[in-house]
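Late entry, 2-acetamido-2-deoxy-beta-D-glucopyranose complex.
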Amino acid sequence: MDTINNLFIYLFLSVFTFLLLRAVTAAHLRRRKTRLPPGTLGLPFIGETLQLISAYKTENPEPFIDDRVSKYGNIFTTHVFGEPTVFSADPETNRFILQNEGRLFESSYPGSIQNLLGRYSLLLMRGTLHKRMHSLTMSFANSSILKDHLLADIDRLVRLNLDSWTGRVFLMEEAKKITFNLTVKQLMSFDPCEWTEKLMKEYMLVIEGFFSIPLPIFSSTYRKAIQARRKVAEALGLVVRERRKERGGGERKNDMLEALFEGDGVEGGGFSDEEIVDFMLALLVAGYDTTSTIMTLAVKFLTETPHALSHLKEEHEEIRLRKGEVESLQWEDYKSMPFTQCVVNETLRIANIISGVFRRAMTDINIKGYTIPKGWKVFASFRAVHLDHAHFKDARSFDPWRWQSNAGSTSSPNVFTPFGGGPRRCPGYELARVELSVFLHHLITRFSWVPAEPDKLIFFPTTRMQKRYPIIVQRRSLFDPYKE
Ligand code: HEM
Ligand SMILES: *[C@@H]1O[C@H](CO)[C@@H](O)[C@H](O)[C@H]1NC(C)=O
Ligand SMILES: *[C@@H]1O[C@H](CO)[C@@H](O)[C@H](O)[C@H]1NC(C)=O
Ligand SMILES: *[C@@H]1O[C@H](CO)[C@@H](O)[C@H](O)[C@H]1NC(C)=O
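Prediction complete; structure with ligand written out below:
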C-alpha cells in the first residue's frame, strides 16, 4: 500500500514539476520571440526515451528519426535521457554544430560516463588542453607514422591472430582481440602476453559499464565497471611509472606513451601520471570497440553481397600473388587497394557505429529559422544523413561501387561524416581504415567462411551483431591448388 502511495505521490510531483517547467520554458521562449524546432516532449521526465529505446531494438536502423523527420522535417525537438533535445538529420546543421565546437556548442556526456572515462580523457577535455592533446593524438596516428611504423605491427598482429582460427569462431570476439592487442602495442609497445590478456578482461567490464544506461546508479554492471576501471588505471599507472624510470636511464621507445612523455619540457609543461593514464584509457575506449565492430560488420555486409566479396577477392589475391605467401604488407600495397577503400567507406556509411554526437548549446542559437535555447542538448545524427535517399541513391543498400564516382554521394561533399568533424574529428580515422583494410586482406586471402547460424544487426545500446557473428572458417591457400 505504501509503495502505491509513494508511487502516486511521485507521479503527481513529476507531472506537476513537468507542467510547471514546460509552462515556464514556454513563457520564456515566447518572451524572446523564439521558435523551437517542431516536435513533442512526450511523457513527463522520461519523455520519448522509451520510444527511442524500443525503436532501436528493431532491425530498422532509423525508426525513431525516420518517423519524426517525416512528421516534422530534418530538425525536430524531442525529450530523451532526461532532457529536451534537438535532433538534427540535416547535413548543414550537423556541420555547423561540429565546426562550432567550443564556441557555440560543447561536447557533453552523462556523469556516469565521465566517471568511467576519468577527468583527463580527450573526450571530456575542453579548450587549449584539448587542442594540444588532440594534435598529439593525431601526430601519433597520422599517415606518415602509420606508413613508417604502425603498419608493420598491424600486419604482424593481424596475421598472428588469424593463425589461431579454426572451425567455428565468433568474429566479433576475434576482432576485439586483434584491436585490443593492437591498441596496447601502439600505446605502450607491449606484445600480447598474460598481462595484456588480464588487462583485457578488466577492460571489457569497463566497456560494459558504458552501456548500462539509463539507470547506472542502480546497476551492478556499472558498479563492477567502476571497480574494473580502478584496476585498469592501477595497472596502467604501474606501466607509466616504470617507463618514467627507464627513460631516466636513457631508453626510448616508439609509441604513444613516449609521445606523452615528450610533452615534458615543451610549452604547457609535461603531463602528470594521472593525466597520462586517463588519456590512454580513453584511447583504448575510443579505438578498440569501434574498430572491432567495423571489422565484423564489413565481413557481414560482404558475406551478404557475394559479387562485392568476389570483386574484393580479386583485388587482394592479385596483391598476394604478386608478393608471395609470407611477405608482409607494405604501404604501397595498402595504397593499391582502391576497391577495398570503397568497401571501407560503404561499411562506415551504412553501419554507422557512431550514429551521431551529443552536444550542449552554450548560448541561444538561431539556425534554419529555429532557436535552440541555451543549455539544451542537440544530437547531430550522422546516420540519418548517411541513410537519406536525398544524399545517397538507394541509401539503405550496401553498394561499394557507389564510391567509384562522385565520392559516393549524389549531393554535396559534406554529407559523409563517419568520423565526425571540426576540432573533435576522430584522430584515429586513418588508423581505423588501415586496420580494417589489413584485416580484410589477410582474412580474404587465407580463409573462406560461411555464417554458422543466422544473426542480426541491432542498434541498441550499440550497433553490433546480436550473437557476435559466429562463422565457420576454412583455411585456403592461394599457393596450393589442391587446398582451395
Ligand atoms: C571505425 C572506427 C572509428 C569510428 C567510426 C570513430 C568515430 C569517431 C567519432 C564520430 C568521433 C567524434 C566524437 C565527437 O565528436 O564527440 C571520434 C572521436 C575520437 N576517436 Fe574515433 N572512431 C574510430 C576509431 C578510432 C580509433 C582507432 C582511435 C584511436 C586512436 C580513435 C580515437 C578517438 C578519440 C581519441 C576521439 C576523441 C577526439 C576528441 O574528442 O577530440 N577512434 N571517433
Ligand atoms: C605526423 O606526425 C609527425 C610527428 O609525430 C610529424 O613529424 C609529421 O610531419 C606528421 N605527418 C603528417 C603527414 O602530418
Ligand atoms: C592477442 O593475441 C594473441 C595471439 O594471437 C592471443 O592469444 C590473445 O588472446 C590476444 N588477446 C589479448 C588480449 O592479448
Ligand atoms: C572515402 O571517404 C573519404 C571521406 O571520409 C573520402 O575522402 C575518400 O575519397 C573516400 N574514398 C573513396 C574511395 O571514395
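Residues 1-13 have pLDDT under 50 and may be disordered. Will revisit in the morning.
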